[in-house]
Amino acid sequence: MEHANWQIFTLIVAMSFLILYKIFSARAGKKIYIRRIAGLNEIDEAVGRATEMGRPMLFHPGVDTITTIGTLAALGVLGHVARLGARMSTRLIVITHIPLIVPIAEDVVKQSYTSEGRPEMFDAEDIRFLAAGSDQVALAAANLMAKEQTASHFFFGEYDYTSLLYTEPGQHHGAIQIAGTNQYYQIPFFIASCDYTVIGEELLAASAYLTREATMLGSLIGQDYGKIIILALMLVGTLAVTLGTQGVRIALEKVIGVYK
Amino acid sequence: MWKKRLIATVTFIAGLYFFLEYVVPPMVPARTRQGVIQSVRSAPMPKVAKRWSDKSGVVEVEERTVVRQRIDARLVTRTVTVPNRPGQVVRREGEQAGLEEVRLKDVRAADRGFFLSGRERRTRGVVLEVTRDRVDVGVLGGVSTIRMAYQRIETTLSIPIASEREVTRTTKGDTPERVTPDKLKPGDTVTFKWRPQKGKTGTVSKVEGGKVLVSFFPTVIVPYGRLVAFRTRSTGAVESAAAESLEAGELVRIGPTTYLSRMLASVNNFLTVLGAMAWGMGLFSLWLVHSMNIRRRRPEWYLGVIVFVAIGFGAVAGYGFGNEEVLWARNLNDVVFEHMLLPMGSTVFSLLAFYMASAAYRSFKAKSSEAILMMVSALIIMLGQIPVGMWLTEWLGHYKYVDALQLPKISQWILYGPSSAAVKGMWFGMMLGAIAVGLRFWLSLERGAFFDREM
C-alpha cells in the first residue's frame, strides 16, 4: 500500500469503471479493432512448423505460482496453443516446477483438446512436474528438448534469472521459440535468445488477442483508454513543472497525487 | 452449470476479502491518516477475567487480561515541500540538545528541525521523504491524535495432579517425553496434544493444592479497537503494525479496519493445505512419467530408477534437517543438501555466464539499424560501468562544455533517461493490464481456459 491515497483510489475506480464499461459495450455487439501483435501472430506459425516436422511442442508457464497475473495470462496462451495443437494433431508437452500448476495445466490442456473434439490426444504424462527448483527444471528442459526433439518452444509467464537457462538450449537446438514475460529485466534475454518476444502488457493482452472474444477485447480497449488518461495526466504534469511555478507544482501534487 | 456458478461465487468472495482487507482500509480518505509518529502515550484500561472448564470438566481454564492499554499516537499530518537546492543549509535537531546546521542534501527521513520552505520562511517539522529534488517535511502544526488500544491475555490451565492426561515435556536440553501431570515441576516447558490448548506451549508456574498450573504468557495479542496501522519500514516496504509496537519517528498510515485480518491465519492455513495437496499432484506426475519409462523400458529408463532412489534418499535425509538429536540424520542431511545439492545448483547457475556470452554475441551482430543502436548503447553502458571507460574519457572532464561527454555520464544518462522512461511506460501498461486481468478473474468474465465451458 505504498501509494494508498484517495487520488490513487479515484484513479483505480475510474480505470476499473472504464474497463468494465468497455467490456459490456463490446458484449452488446460494438465492433472493436485491435492492433497486430507480431509475437502472438507467430504462435500459429510455430505450431504449424512443429506439425510439418512431426515433432512435439514444449510449453513452460513461467517460474511463479498460480496467484501471479503473468502465470494466469500464460495459462490463457497455453489454452490457445493446446487448441491449435489439437487441430493439427501435434503433441504438446507442458513442464513446470510448481506442483499447483500441474492439475491446472492438465485441466486447461484437457479442456482445449475436448473443445477441438480430440479428447483422446490428452496424455497425463505430457504435463510434467520435473523438479522442485526452477534451475533444475531448466536443465531437465534442455535434456527434454534434445530427447524429444521438440520443434517449437513457448515460454510465457513470470521469469527470473533462469530465463536464459530455458531459452538458450532451445536456440542452440534450432527450435522456433516464442517468449513473453512481464518481468522487464528478463525481456532482453528473451529478445536475444528467442525468435519472437511478447513484451510486458502484450502478455496480459494475449488471451484477449488470441481468443478474439468480445469480453476480452472490450477489456483491452478499456486498458487503452486508461493509458490515454495516464498520458494526459503526465503531459499536464510535465507542462506544469516545466512552465509553472512552485505553487502550481505543489497544487498539482496535492490534487493528482500520482505525480509524486 | 452450478459448478461454474460456485467457482464464480468463491472467486468473487475471495477477491472481495482481499479488497476489503488490503485495499479499502488504507484508502478511506476521511478516516485514514498518514504521517510520522511524534509521540506514543499509553494509559491502562480496566482488566477483565474469564473462567471456565473444558468439556470433561477436569481441566479448568482461566483467561485474564494482564495488559489492556489505550495508545494515543500523535501524528504529523500536514506536509510542506522544500526544494532540495544544492548547498542550502538548514538547522536540524541534533542527537545532543540544541540545533545543528546541516546541508539540506544531508537531511534524512525522520530528522526534526527548522527547514526553509519555498517562500523562504522558516518551517519547523519532521522530514518525511527526501528525493533528489525535494524534501517533504511534516509540519508540527498539523498534528492529529489517533487513539488505538490493545490487550494482552494470559491463559492459565489448571490440571489435577491425579489426572492421567499426558503432556509432552519439552524443557530445553532434555529429550521431549510424554509425562503425566504428577511428574511436572515448576519451570517445565510443556506442549499439549489436547484441547483447549492443543499445539500450544506453556510453562508450569505452580504445583499446589493437588493441581498443576500451566501459564501461557505472553499468549495472544489481540488487536483491539477499530483502527489498523501500516508501518513504512526504512526499506520502503509497508507492513501492518500492531498498535503496541508503534514507536515515535515511524512513518505510518492509520485507518479503519475491516476486522478481516483476524481471518488471515485461517486463509493462510487454507492456502497451505491446498499447496500440500498440489505437492501430491506434482509427485504423482513425477511417478507417472518415470514409472512408465521403467515399465516400458523406454530409452534411459534407468534414470527413472535413480529418481525414485533419490526421492527416498532425500526424504530420509530431510529427517535430519534441524535435528540436533539424531546425529546420523543431521550428517546425512548436510551431505545431501549442503555438499551435493548446493554445489550442483551453483554449477547450473554458472552455466548462465556461457549462455549470456553466446546470446550477447548473437544480439550484437549489426543486422539492422535497431541492432546497431542497441549495440552502441550497450557498449557505452558497459564501458561507463568499468574503470577502463572512466580512464578513456577522463580527460574530457578538464574542458567546460564537453565534460558531459564522459562515458560514465553518457551511460548514466542512457540508464536514467531513455531507458528509465521506456521501463516506466511498460509499467503503466502492465499495471493497467493487471487491473484488467484482475477484474476479469474477479468478476468471472475471463474467457478461454476455464470460464467459457459448461461444467
Instruction: Give the low-confidence spans of chain A.
Output: none
Query: How would you describe the shape of chain A?
Result: globular
Strand content of chain A is: 5-15%
Q: Can you give the mean pLDDT of chain B?
A: 76
Mean pLDDT of chain A: 85
How far the N terminus sits from the C terminus of chain B, by CA atoms, comes to 5 Å
What is the percent of helical residues of chain A? Answer: 55-70%
Number of helices of chain A: 11
Radius of gyration of chain B: 32 Å
Greatest chain-chain contact: A-B, 79 and 67 residues
Cα radius of gyration of chain A in angstroms: 21 Å
Major sheet of chain B: 16 strands, antiparallel
Spell out the helices and strands of chain B N to C: HEEEEEEEEEEEEEEEEHHHHHH
Distance between the termini of chain A: 15 Å
Quaternary state of this entry equals: heterodimer
At the third CATH level, what is the topology name of the largest domain in chain A? Rossmann fold
Q: Please report which band the strand proportion of chain B falls in: under 5%, 5-15%, 15-25%, 25-35%, 35-45% or over 45%.
A: 25-35%
Q: Give the number of helices of chain B.
A: 7
Q: Which CATH-level-2 architecture of the largest domain in chain A?
A: 3-Layer(aba) Sandwich
Structural features, described:
The complex is a heterodimer of chains A (260) and B (455). Chain A is α/β, with parallel strands linked by helices and 260 residues long. Chain A is built from eleven helices and six strands. Chain A has a six-stranded parallel β-sheet, with helices on both faces. The radius of gyration of chain A is 21 Å and the shape is globular. Chain B has a 16-stranded antiparallel β-sheet that branches. Chain B has seven helices and 16 strands. Chain B has 455 residues and is α+β, with helices and mostly antiparallel strands. In chain B, helix 2 runs antiparallel to helix 3 (302-318). The model of chain B has no long low-confidence stretch (mean pLDDT 76). Classes of the chains: A alpha/beta (260), B alpha+beta (455). At the A-B interface, helix 1, helix 3, helix 4, strand 3 and helix 5 of A face helix 2, helix 4 and helix 7 of B.
